Amino acid sequence: MVVRSLLEKLRKGANMAASDLGPDGPWGKVCLAVATAANDIGHVKSVLDRAEDLLEREAESLDFEMLATRRKVGSYDEFSNRED
Q: Residue 12 and which of 1, 47, 55, 65 are 20 to 30 A apart at CA?
């Protein structure tokens, strides 16, 4: 229930996708992924900041701990298979 609630809050909190990456079964540790896309890297960073802030606030009220965060933000050229 906690993970489902967090995912729903992340999805509604901003224009982002959120998913539980596991592991399956009873949760002691869970890996969540959040993704967004925009034509401005500043906007992407802002959305990811909001996601992290939301999780930090929820950690206090729902009694869980964020063990680590990691980000990969890049431009179209970094992620495309385009050859120039």
A: 65
Question: Which H or E run contains 82?
Answer: none
Give me 13's structure tokens.
């909190």
For 18-59, write each residue's pLDDT tens digit: 999 988 766 678 899 999 988 888 999 999 999 999 999 999
The DSSP line for 12-58 is HHTT-EEEE----SS-SS--EEEE---S-HHHHHHHHHHHHHHHHHH
- Flag whether pLDDT at 13 surpasses 80: no
Torsions phi, psi for 21 (to 5 deg) = -95, 0
* Three-state DSSP state, 66: coil
Report the alpha-carbon angle 81-15-27, nearest 5.
90
Domain ranges across the chain: 2-23+32-66
